[in-house]
Amino acid sequence: MSLATLNDIFFAIVGRDNPRVTMHRQASGGWASISSRELYRNVSGTARKLLNWTIAKGDRVAILGENRPEWTTADFACQLIGAVSVPIYSTLTAQQTQFILQDAGCRVIFLSTEAQLRKLESIRAQTPVEKVVVMDPVESTQAFGMAQLMREGPENGDPGLDAGARRITSDDLATIIYTSGTTGVPKGVMLTHGNLASNIEYSLKSFEFPGEQVSLSFLPLSHVTARHVDFALLYNGVTLAYCPFVDQLSQTLLEIRPTMFVSVPRVYEKIHAQADLKAKDFPKKQIFHWALSVGRAHEKEVLAGKTPRSLSWKLADKLVYSKIRAGMGGRGQVFISGGAPLGRELAQWFVHVGIRIHEGYGLTETSPVIAVNTPRDHKLGTVGKPLGNIEVRIEEDGEILVRGPSVFKGYWKQASETEKAFTDGWFKTGDIGNLDGDGYLSVTDRKKDLLKTSGGKFIALQPIENSLKHNALVAEAIVVGDKRKFPAVLIAPYFPMLEAWARNNEITYSSRTELVHNPLVKELYDRIVEDVNRNLARFEKLKRAILLADEFTPQDGMLTHSMKLRRRAVEERYRSLIDDVYANAEAAPAVSHITGD
């Protein structure tokens, strides 16, 4: 059937009479299932309460919480009555939350915990919020308990509610998603039912879902990628197990053992780093590198979706590859990456351990998927072919333009920004890329992230940074030097790996600051940078590096909540260190480290 609205998806999910649609961890530590009938009851009960509060079509309702069944329940309840859901990251400050509630004009808010309720109470007087619903059992005269709302849903259907839901059209606004933004004030992206439904219908068309499939919902549902994936998987009959906090991911993988794994590159990077860390000592290191060489010899077969049959592969799988898969639950059949560039070297490493990652590409404004590698059409180093209902055009300056039914309605209350986002009906992605002769799309960089040296040379940053981050000792790498004589790089080490290396080399230190100042550590990172420099043009070579004693997180403002780097924020934070590099260097000799804390 052709999907017109998110309500079509909801009715398809609850119409299956499935005993296990979603799973969630109980307070006792065990896992509980929610059936399709329970989901319908919970959603309809919540929707009826919103109607009783006079929430009507077009009214905005905020959802602020970690991933859990109640999040999806609140979202579907909004869609059934034509209300507009406004997701808010649970890690935002009170002031950031206040901005979104005010800007969107939210009349109702769903909150996850007592801590989130206290945060709201500190700013509620400055917001238009009329009703508050708390998902956890919290004693409060200021809020309604969501459990009670859900229990009041009809057991045997609600014909009146269903009829109203089916009157919602593809042009009706479904959600306003505030982009976390790498710079500036967040903008509310307006996505219609048709935007989201058309994208969900096409994004997983070439994927198969045989038997009982299970996936983890751990990427923040406030981000369009996670929300799209959850809708699409539920629509295709996949059971979702909710993992509310990323620090629970490792344990949850072992408990749930998902058959499908959808993540952002940062998680794949950590899996790679952990594998390297566990194989650092003899004889594991030698076995590990031998297994990688076997994987390289069978790269074409893995990329074609085939399992190699050679004896060397079977041995390498037993000794190494199976151990990596076991850390991800051991049952993974499909692996997908989105939200940020994966990096060719990292994707290739996973191929060499027998895991083919289907990398995709999209933006909040495109609902989000523009292109994705599939089991049938897969090319390493690309983000796949554009979806069947999407048109892609490459401008003369290399910018990727997109047109199709999933392109957004506009920015909330920002007509001028909306106008600037389009040219002749095509959405300007702000990304640089190309389409090859086989129709595969490659994304090389953000247009605004191209660095131009004082000599007039343009440098694409992401390929260089991804090459550096492929080394397990590097957590983050940020190339700087716009309008300067030469490029330099800020490096945040992956400290578990670096600290293990320091112990093996009998290096003592009292703090991470002291560790990154150690001459042997400087030499270690010199070699990493020099290895990358060998594959760069002369004007691209990194002439200075700044080792940092910091780890970047969304909480410190260095990463977005979807785990992308806030380049401008990082450069501003370390402005004095960067300025010192260029002030003290008239010429540009070989890499010479300046460390900072």
If you had to describe this structure to a student in words, what would you say it looks like?
By secondary structure, the chain is an alpha/beta fold. It folds into three domains: 6-168 and 204-259, 3-Layer(aba) Sandwich (Rossmann fold); 262-330 and 333-448, ANL, N-terminal domain (Rossmann fold), CATH 3.40.50.12780; 450-596, GMP Synthetase, Chain A, domain 3, CATH 3.30.300. 38% of the residues lie in helices and 21% in strands. The chain contains 22 helices and 28 strands. A five-stranded parallel beta sheet has the order 4-3-5-6-7, sandwiched between helices. The chain has a five-stranded mixed beta sheet with strand order 12-13-14-15-16. Strands 17, 18, 20, 21 and 22 form a five-stranded antiparallel beta sheet that branches. A hairpin with a 4-residue loop joins strand 17 (391-394) and strand 18 (399-403). The model has no long low-confidence stretch (mean pLDDT 93).
User: In what range is the share of β-strand residues?
Assistant: 15-25%
Q: Helical region count? A: 22
What is the residue-mean pLDDT, rounded to a whole number? Answer: 93
As for the CATH topology of the largest domain, it is Rossmann fold
Q: How many domains is the backbone divided into?
A: 3
Helix and strand content put the structural class at: alpha/beta
Q: Architecture of the largest domain in CATH?
A: 3-Layer(aba) Sandwich
Output the CATH homologous superfamily of the largest domain: ANL, N-terminal domain
